[in-house]
Each structure stands twice: as structure tokens, then as C-alpha cells.
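Input record, target 12 of the design panel.
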């Protein structure tokens, strides 16, 4: 509410990919948010026009480059993006590039928490942190960066108890899982060498990424 209450024209921008699948920012959620905001703002005595629009992916210029969308963005005071944090930032920079007579305000409707896998209906678990230097070949396909609460490269720590992590009795100890998997694979030797340091340079610097890195080209 605090993000939008000063605006009389608002565009709710849903995203048709990941956030639709996880039922957080798709067409249905955009419709619900628009109606909730409209009711709440009117209750506070504000006159407001709220429109909704869907794009297939907000993280891709191809889908944002739609004249009817750009016209709507030009017309409103604020865009509420229901994409993940990537989509919000990408839509914001795209609109500010193509609309050059004023700055466009794009705000997030969601809190993006992780890259995960679908475990059951409406249930996801975090699996990758995008560290840029994958170690899964050494850890039996279980990520210690993401799934160990301390991101330990040499585990388990002293807090591991009965296969659970010290942070919660409901959370598996990732290193317990790793040891079990390596034992089943007959590959316990893989964790004998002590991992000294992780190379964090390829991770989270916000820089460009190519499908094939320059230094990997044959
Ligand atoms: S090691 Fe890095 S790239 Fe591989 S799954 Fe874990 S966080 Fe993702
Ligand atoms: S108990 Fe296991 S998962 Fe939890 S911090 Fe220690 S090694 Fe990591």
C-alpha cells in the first residue's frame, strides 16, 4: 500500500512463467491484487484506476516489447511488477530505456526467496544459489552451498544430529544427506580432500553472462 498510495493510475504487471507456476504472480494473482488494492485504496478515500497486464516473461525484452504494454506504462504513474526480482529489474530498465521522456517507477509485488524445485502441489524447496562454480560432482548431487545452513564445503558440523540440522529439527542436514548419497554410490573417498576455499568470483557480481563463457570456448 505504501508503495502505491500516492498514485492515481497503477498498472499491475503479471508474469506468465515461474511466478505463474508457483501461484504468486500470474494472471489470477494479478487480478486478486488489483481488486484488493482497489478496495483498500478506495476505503482510504483515494480515487484510483488500476489496470492489469500479462507478459509471458518479464526477464526477456522480446516479451516486454509490446506497443500496447508500453502505451499503458506511459499512461500510468507506477508499475507494480509481479515477477521475481529478475523480472522487476529487467522490466524497470526496459521501460526506462524505451520511454525516454520521463522516469518510470517499477516496484516489486513479491519477495523473491530462492531458486527451487517443485516437491508437491504448492510446495518448493531451495536447491541452488547460483554460485557459478558448481560442486555437485563432489557431493553426490546435493548442494552444500544452498542446503547446508552454513554453506560448509567440509561437513558436517558439530550441530548435525540424527540427520537433522541444528537450525531446525524439520531441516535435513545437507552433509548427512551428502554422506549417505556418497556411501550409496561407493564414493566416500570423494570428500577426503579438504576443500580449502571456494572461488566466489563467478557468483553474484551482476555482470554479463554468456551461454558459453569466453574462457570455456574450444
Ligand atoms: S554448487 Fe553452486 S551452482 Fe551448484 S547447485 Fe550449489 S549453488 Fe548451484
Ligand atoms: S547441521 Fe548440517 S546442514 Fe546444518 S549447518 Fe551443520 S553441516 Fe550444515
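The sequence produced for target 12 reads:
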Amino acid at each position: 500500500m505504501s508503495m502505491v498510495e500516492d498514485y492515481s493510475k497503477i498498472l499491475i504487471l503479471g508474469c506468465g512463467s515461474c511466478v505463474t507456476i508457483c501461484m504468486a504472480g500470474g494472471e489470477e494473482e494479478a487480478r486478486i491484487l488489483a481488486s484488493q488494492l482497489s478496495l483498500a485504496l478506495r476505503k482510504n478515500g483515494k480515487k484510483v484506476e488500476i489496470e492489469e497486464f500479462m507478459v509471458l516473461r518479464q526477464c526477456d525484452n522480446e516479451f516486454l516489447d509490446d506497443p500496447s504494454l508500453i502505451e499503458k506504462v506511459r499512461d500510468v504513474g507506477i508499475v507494480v511488477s509481479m515477477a521475481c526480482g529478475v523480472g522487476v529489474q529487467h522490466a524497470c530498465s526496459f521501460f526506462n530505456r524505451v520511454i525516454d521522456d520521463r522516469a518510470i517507477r517499477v516496484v516489486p509485488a513479491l519477495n523473491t526467496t530462492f531458486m527451487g524445485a517443485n516437491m508437491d502441489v504448492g510446495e518448493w524447496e531451495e536447491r541452488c544459489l547460483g554460485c557459478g562454480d558448481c560442486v555437485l560432482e563432489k557431493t553426490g548431487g546435493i548442494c552444500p552451498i544452498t542446503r547446508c545452513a552454513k554453506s560448509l564445503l567440509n561437513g558436517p558440523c558439530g550441530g548435525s544430529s540424527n540427520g537433522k540440522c541444528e537450525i531446525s529439527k524439520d531441516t535435513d542436514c545437507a552433509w548427512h544427506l551428502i554422506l549417505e548419497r556418497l556411501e550409496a554410490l561407493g564414493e566416500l573417498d570423494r570428500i577426503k580432500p579438504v576443500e580449502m576455499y571456494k572461488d566466489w568470483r563467478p557468483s553474484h557480481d551482476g555482470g554479463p553472462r554468456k551461454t558459453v563463457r569466453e574462457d570455456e570456448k574450444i
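DSSP finds seven helices and six strands in the chain.
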